[in-house]
TrEMBL record, chains A, B:
Residues 34-43 have a biased composition (Low complexity). The keyword Methyltransferase does not apply. Residues 1-62 are annotated as: Disordered. The lineage of its organism: Eukaryota, Viridiplantae, Streptophyta, Embryophyta, Tracheophyta. Keywords: Calcium. It comes from the Eukaryota. Pfam families: EF-hand_6. GO terms for molecular function: calcium ion binding. The keyword Calcium applies. This is EF-hand domain-containing protein. Residues 65-100, 132-167 form the EF-hand domain. Residues 1-14 have a biased composition (Polar residues).
């Protein structure tokens, strides 16, 4: 065994190998270094080419190389040309490339991809990062929806999250999936995955040494968790 | 200063004194022992008198002394006389004494008052405890809704939760209340308060010495938090 650390922190590649079927309980065993990650990372958009301007000619604020479809999707809903879109506009903008997401999922996406200056709106940089992340997740979803049912089940969810870099304990998976009576479609998968991703990120911030444990004050615990409890009227 | 502990753990009495206005930032200061509690406790129903049977003559499973109204509310919805009610039946049962709660609030109540044998239904004991808890919270809500608007604001929420035994940091309060665009009516207050109560309880289990901090493994953190993320389709 190469390491005694409970998990590695670098495996977030979409090409991470699938779990072998017998390793469902792998989190109880010392994990192989290359195959295990409790902690994922926020996907980062590709850095702009260093030799050119960071911004495309027509896409103010977008990273260079952003697909015109993405820029168009954003600009179509940013009617006042403020350069920022709110949650309803985001819902509409994503419809053109993906689907009409549940407003609950949209709010979670807004929270996780928010810009540092305005928590209620996102700009071109955040939109491009979000679009790219969803594209990646869509591919993962389709890859693991092996029976092409448009939904994934518990085992497929496990494998899909693992492929995204999150090795979720069976008990936690069970909790997650129990919230979706009708199975996980792509919308629910995104919501569910973003909850895992967001909570893992936040927890990881409190565990800089990747020990697998974190000491939290009551205040920081509450402040960490409550933003995820999306409970709008 | 009598103690250097960051908070005491016993002050959950509804008669806890209100915070003086100047102590809004009291959590940053060493708190007075008798006036401060970050941690609340689940309200426990009054123990049955030791000299009598624990069960009323007509209310199978209810604690002795349970009001006939409560027994009736339960039995009216427990049509199959199974002795257990599900979330929809709970919603209906509570309507007779309180109001028709949001299903999200109902699910949170089910989760927090669940019986150990069946997480999807509650029995007479749990129902009686829940009813009594809501009665207490209703009184607190009315006490702090000083302008009788039927809604409470940030400062009223702070005082109400404090009166219930929870001293919530201003930043957390702000997060909580930001989820309710239209202010907190009693339904939202119960949802919001039950989130605080539930998370505090769970955190406290990880901090048996009441130090104000807890060390959590990633798995236990995820398992603790995810049940609160009510995300039903």
């Amino acid at each position: 065994m190469a390491t005694s650390r409970p998990y590695s922190s670098h495996s977030t590649a979409p090409s991470a190998p699938e779990l072998p079927p017998q390793s469902y309980d792998h989190h109880h065993q010392p994990p192989p270094q290359q195959h295990q990650s409790y902690y994922g990372q926020y996907p980062t958009p590709s850095p702009p080419p260093s030799s050119s301007s960071s911004y495309g000619p027509s896409g103010g604020g977008f990273p260079a190389g952003t697909s015109p479809d993405v820029i168009r999707a954003f600009q179509m809903v940013d009617r006042d040309r403020s350069g920022f879109i709110d949650e309803y506009e985001l819902q509409q903008a994503l419809s053109s490339g993906y689907q009409r997401f549940n407003l609950r999922t949209i709010r979670l996406l807004m929270f996780l991809f928010k810009n540092p200056y305005d928590s209620l709106r996102i700009g071109p940089m955040e939109f491009a990062a979000l679009w790219s992340c969803l594209g990646h997740w869509r591919a993962v979803f389709e890859r693991f929806d092996r029976d092409r049912s448009g939904k994934i089940d518990l085992m497929e969810l496990r494998d899909a999250l693992y492929s995204l870099g999150y090795a979720i304990p069976p008990s936690v998976l069970q909790l997650l999936i129990s919230k979706y009576d009708n199975g996980l479609n792509f919308d629910s998968f995104v919501e569910c995955g973003m909850i895992v991703k967001g909570l893992t990120e936040k927890f990881k911030e409190k565990d800089p040494g990747y020990t697998g444990s974190a000491t939290l004050s009551y205040d920081s615990f509450m402040s960490l968790v409550i933003p995820f409890l999306v409970s709008y009227d």
